[in-house]
Design a protein that fits this description.
mainly alpha, flat
């Protein structure tokens, strides 16, 4: 089987499985005990975020403009120093 055929087959398999996976996730999230079952993991994530803060002063638009400028320079042969 070629790589392209294998990739297409995997896409079909995941597309077929998607409705069942969504239904399973809905059931898990609807469980009244969901929060208490995952409290330790949630607590760990919050503790990590507090212990390892990151400062990001750029908004998404500024970052997007920076990337567009970089792409523009690369496409126009001016990107040697980008």
């Amino acid at each position: 089987m070629s790589d392209l055929k294998a990739i297409k087959r995997w896409l079909e398999i995941w597309a077929d499985a998607a409705p069942e996976l969504r239904a399973q996730k809905r059931l898990e999230l609807a469980d009244p005990e969901y929060y208490s079952k995952h409290l330790a993991a949630l607590d760990g994530m919050l503790d990590y975020a507090v212990a390892h803060p990151t400062l990001n002063r750029a908004c998404g638009l500024v970052e997007q403009q920076r990337l567009f400028k970089k792409l523009f320079l690369l496409l126009n042969g001016n990107g040697e120093n980008v």
